[in-house]
Amino acid sequence: MTTQQIPLPDMSPRILAGKVDTTLSKMRKLHDELNRALRYSPAKDCPYVRSPHDAADLVMYDMSHLEQEQFRILLLNNRNRVLSIETIYTSTLNSALIRIAEVFRPAILRSSAAIVLIHNHPSGDPTPSPEDLSITRTLVEAGRILDIDVLDHIVIGCGCFVSMKERGLGFEGTSSNTVQLN
Q1: Shared domain check, 78 and 59
Q2: What domain range is 24 assigned to?
């Protein structure tokens, strides 16, 4: 009986590092191309947001289990079609850290008619905090001044969410100028 040796590929750290770099580079290129394709997809392919549930569904999967707080906005056109989902902040949120200009900049640049505020609570409990209420009131008022409707503020928990507008938190006395989220 003879044993045959099968040559193994060179797995030196230098070769492996090169392969990993190439793979990461290809993944980055693919990611960039997918983002470009999504950004320029025809409006007919963009989802509608007709309810808080629709808005939450767009981000629930990836925001439910984040270990850090993240603040995003949905940019909507005048027919409530999603133009984009923008991440504004990642980390600890409080009213002192949120800059109104940074929240509304993407909406102004994309000529959005409306936005939906969304952030997660890493604790898993989506109950809005007093800071959430304060931030919401401030951003609703800023939106009123900028003529960009803030339709809702969704707080994401572990597989669940709270619509602050449905609960009447931070939207007291608001009237929508252009579109409504039922």
Answers
A1: yes
A2: 11-40
pLDDT tier for residue 178 given thresholds of 50, 70 and 90: very low
* 42 residue type, one letter: P
Name all contacts of 170-177 with Cβ < 8 Å and 24+ positions apart: 170/132, 170/133, 170/135, 170/136, 170/137, 170/140, 171/136, 171/140, 172/137, 174/140, 174/144, 176/114, 176/149, 176/151, 177/144, 177/147, 177/149
- Average pLDDT for 95-106: 85
Residue where the block lists tokens 């008022």: 141
Question: 81 with 26, same domain?
Answer: no
pTM: 0.71
* Alpha-carbon 19 to chain mean position: 32
- Which residues, at least 6 apart from 59, have a Cβ–Cβ distance to it below 8 Å? 72, 85, 118, 154, 156
Q: How many domains does the chain have?
A: 2
CB 164 within 8 A of CB 56: no
140 closest CA partner among 117, 118, 110, 163: 117
Task: Quickly list H helices, 40-117.
Answer: 52-63, 100-109
The pair of three-digit structure tokens given for residue 1, joined into one six-digit string: 């009986």
Q: What is the pLDDT of residue 177?
A: 41
